[in-house]
Design a protein that fits this description.
Number of helices: 6
Structural class: alpha/beta
Radius of gyration: 22 Å
Strand order of the largest sheet: 6-3-2-10-21
Order of helices and strands: EEHEEEHEEEEEEEHEHEHEEEEEEEH
Distance between the termini: 27 Å
Helix content: 10-25%
Strand content: 25-35%
Oligomer: single chain
């Protein structure tokens, strides 16, 4: 087996979503040799978002257009963008080694911006109607569902909190849960139970999401009686879990038991020189604006961290 090519940099950023591209902008503006690695097109979840209406400076902009704007800014000060699928991140003294299979990127600073993904139901109609009434983000899409009757699928904190949030737009929100009680925090449950626009369908699972070009109904099954019925809905918001893309740092002891990367307010993990930003980080709100904030902090903090190191040790 041939030896892998070693490529050196000051900062390696894994992931070219809004956070990663912002970090690249800040790091490269500080005259650091910056490489951003992405296995797909730059933009992250923006590429799957039709319109963005909650990012400052734009009343409305398409997700792909905003992604391109981020990319142009990220590259403006000399950052290098490479394609690669990162397999692991290891630590070798002051250096972090980012392995993409054929190449290893070596840098004293690595910023993990790998994002997260929504757990899917895996039922018919879910993929086909994604963006056409199926959503995984009430904050992102709730405004588009004014005066409709919606279903929210799930029973945890996100389902209950986002379901309550949707009532400011929807005429009615029905939370569908496979059990006969919620798993959400009690304060969130209390708010939902007190909201006259929120209803509940207990002991029920969704078998399919139905509609031609938009969500029209969901087929549901009662898990106790096996009775199947069709429930009208003008939109379906799915909250059955969100999972971090953090496997590449699983061996570095920087994650929670659920896989979220723990950081301080400077985006630093417990491994010096290893940062995490955006949706993969343990945080409350996962939005473009918060990812950009994370990225700007990490990009600047990378420069600060490098100034503390003895140049002789990096030779």
């Amino acid at each position: 087996m041939s030896e892998k090519t070693i490529i050196k940099a000051d900062v390696v950023i894994i992931g070219a979503g809004p956070g990663g591209m912002t970090a690249a902008l800040y790091a490269s503006r500080s005259n650091l040799k910056t490489i951003i690695i992405e296995k797909g097109a730059p933009g992250g979840e923006l590429l799957n978002t039709a319109d963005v209406e909650n990012y400052p400076g734009f009343t409305k902009i398409s997700g792909p257009e905003l992604a391109d704007n981020f990319y142009q800014s990220a590259m403006a000060f000399g950052a290098e963008h490479v394609y690669g699928d990162v397999e692991s991140v290891t630590v070798d003294g002051l250096y972090k080694m980012v392995d993409t299979g054929s190449k290893v990127y070596q840098a004293p600073v690595v910023i993990v911006a790998t994002g997260a993904y929504n757990r899917k139901l895996g039922v018919p109609g879910e993929e086909q109607l994604s963006g056409q009434g199926v959503s995984f983000c009430a904050v992102c899409d709730g405004f588009f569902f004014r005066n409709r009757e919606l279903v929210v699928i799930g029973g945890g904190d996100s389902a209950v909190e986002e379901g309550t949030y949707l009532t400011q737009f929807a005429d009615k929100v029905t939370i569908i849960h496979r059990r006969d009680e919620l798993r959400a925090q009690q304060i969130l449950q209390d708010r939902a139970f007190a909201n006259p626009k929120v209803d509940f369908l207990w002991d029920t699972v969704v078998e399919s999401i139905n509609g031609e070009n938009a969500v029209e109904s969901v087929t549901v099954r009662n898990v106790k009686t096996d009775a199947v019925s069709e429930f009208p809905a003008g939109g379906a918001f799915i909250y059955v879990g969100i999972l971090p893309n953090s496997e590449i740092v699983a061996d570095l002891n920087v994650t929670t038991p659920d896989g979220w990367i723990k950081t301080n307010d400077f985006m630093e993990t417990e491994v010096p020189g290893l940062f995490a930003i955006g949706d993969v980080r343990l945080k409350h709100l996962r939005q473009v604006a918060t990812a950009v904030g994370d990225g700007s902090i990490a990009g600047q903090r990378a420069y600060d961290y490098l100034q503390t190191l003895d140049p002789e040790l990096l030779k």
